[in-house]
């Protein structure tokens, strides 16, 4: 095999010297250098795909490859329909060589970028579970660009949401600049404040299981995502206050909840206590930054009556919060707490606030909020008198 390759290389070199500007030889040398210079590792991203004898419509299927398998990318070619193809060598016993559509393969350099993103957030707790409503691109950054696409995710792909970002929607030339629109919403304080979904696009940073994608992390467009709120708590969501993140306060893992949401055959956990962060659909930007949540809801579960009850709710307590993720759970058993980053109204600085959870003598869940939030509530109560 090696001798054949050297013979081919020598033949092309001699032909080039003899024929000079021959188009056939130019094409041969161009393809040869393309093959020699392009060698990269690629990973199959589709559940199944075929390596074919050529990129022609009538080409024969040579080998079926599956998600996660590696191939060697030897050459690129864009056909008349502007479809990109890779000539690849498989890692099977016969080292099968052939053509595969580029949409089925992610190159190692792109995969490394996704891995770096995942490594930076390896200690971040997942904030919610999401599922795609349709096929969507997984991107390296939260913006629409041809340069930041990692791969195409299948419809109904399920993932953990680690972070999200509000991105101001692009404006046409006859509209006000983005910063003016937000500033107007802050200063005018009209009876009908600007709405989040009118001003922003939502993007989610997601963590993916290897069974879903070889790329472990990236960004997806929020309009394509359906939040998988567990059926036992979805009743507590209201039209004016949507859930943005939710966490079980007992030992049920988020991965188990993700499996339930995806329809995987696992044992469905019994109902239990939750901490839930909520958000109204109002623009509340401060210095151009929106809060991730403006409400906190803690639900206990009465095993005797088999029903949830409200252990703590900032709306009920008449407390306004301006908070940023993440939500962090701490402790084991009944000795638990959670911490949140909440803006202090007096200083304007973000501060970590700790909420302590405990059970009273009747075994009902109670919450001790930070002292300053208690004082804020009492001040507001006095003002109303």
Topology, pairings included?
Blueprint: H1 2-19, H2 23-38, E1 40-44, E2 48-52, E3 61-66, E4 70-78, E5 84-90, E6 97-101, E7 105-107, H3 108-120, E8 128-132, E9 136-139, E10 149-153, E11 158-168, H4 178-188, H5 196-199, E12 200-207, E13 217-221, E14 225-227, E15 242-248, H6 254-261, E16 274-279, E17 295-302, E18 307-313, E19 323-332, E20 335-343, E21 350-359, E22 365-368, H7 371-384
Antiparallel strand pairs: 1-4, 1-7, 2-3, 4-5, 5-6, 8-11, 8-14, 9-10, 11-12, 12-13, 15-16, 16-17, 17-18, 19-20, 20-21, 21-22
Structure description:
- This protein has helices at 2-19, 23-38, 108-120, 178-188, 196-199, 254-261, 371-384; strands at residues 40-44, 48-52, 61-66, 70-78, 84-90, 97-101, 105-107, 128-132, 136-139, 149-153, 158-168, 200-207, 217-221, 225-227, 242-248, 274-279, 295-302, 307-313, 323-332, 335-343, 350-359, 365-368.
- It has 385 residues and is α+β, with helices and mostly antiparallel strands.
- The chain folds into two domains: 2-107, SH3 type barrels, CATH 2.30.30.40; 110-384, no CATH class.
- Strands 6-5-4-1-7 form a five-stranded antiparallel sheet. A five-stranded antiparallel sheet has the order 13-12-11-8-14. A four-stranded antiparallel sheet has the order 15-16-17-18, with no helix packed on it.
- It starts with a helix and ends with a helix.
- Residues 1-37 and 375-385 have low confidence and may be disordered.
């Amino acid at each position: 095999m090696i001798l054949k390759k050297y013979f081919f290389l020598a033949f092309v070199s001699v032909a080039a010297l003899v024929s000079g500007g021959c188009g056939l030889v130019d094409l041969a040398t161009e393809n040869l250098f393309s093959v020699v210079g392009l060698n990269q590792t690629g990973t199959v991203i589709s559940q199944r795909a075929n390596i074919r004898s050529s990129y022609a419509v009538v080409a024969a299927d040579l080998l079926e490859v599956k998600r996660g398998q590696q191939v060697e990318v030897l050459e690129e070619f864009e056909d008349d329909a502007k479809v990109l193809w890779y000539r690849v060598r498989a890692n099977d016993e016969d080292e099968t060589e052939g053509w595969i559509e580029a949409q089925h393969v992610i190159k190692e350099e792109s995969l490394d970028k996704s891995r770096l993103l995942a490594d930076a957030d390896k200690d971040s707790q997942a904030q919610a579970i999401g599922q795609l409503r349709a096929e969507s691109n997984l991107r390296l950054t939260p913006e629409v660009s041809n340069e930041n696409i990692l791969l195409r995710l299948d419809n109904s792909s399920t993932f953990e949401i680690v972070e999200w970002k509000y991105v101001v929607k692009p404006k046409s030339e006859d509209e006000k600049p983005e910063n003016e629109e937000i500033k107007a919403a802050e200063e005018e304080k009209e009876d009908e404040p600007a709405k989040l979904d009118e001003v922003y696009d939502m993007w989610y940073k997601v963590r993916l299981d290897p069974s879903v994608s070889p790329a472990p992390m990236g960004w997806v467009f929020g309009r394509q995502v359906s939040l998988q709120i567990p059926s036992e708590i979805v009743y507590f969501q209201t039209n004016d206050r949507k859930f943005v993140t939710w966490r079980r306060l007992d030992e049920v893992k988020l991965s188990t909840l993700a499996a339930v949401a995806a329809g995987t055959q696992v044992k469905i956990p019994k109902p239990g206590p939750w901490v839930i962060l909520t958000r109204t659909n109002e623009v509340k930007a401060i210095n151009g930054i929106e809060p991730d949540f403006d409400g906190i809801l803690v639900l206990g579960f009465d095993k005797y009556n088999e029903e949830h009850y409200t252990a703590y709710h900032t709306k009920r307590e008449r407390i306004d919060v301006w908070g940023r993720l993440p939500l962090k759970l701490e402790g084991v058993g009944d000795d638990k707490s959670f911490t949140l980053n909440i803006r202090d109204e007096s200083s304007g600085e973000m501060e970590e606030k700790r909420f302590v959870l405990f059970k009273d003598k009747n075994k009902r869940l109670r919450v001790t909020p930070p002292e300053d939030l208690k004082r804020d509530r009492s001040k507001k109560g006095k003002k109303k008198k």
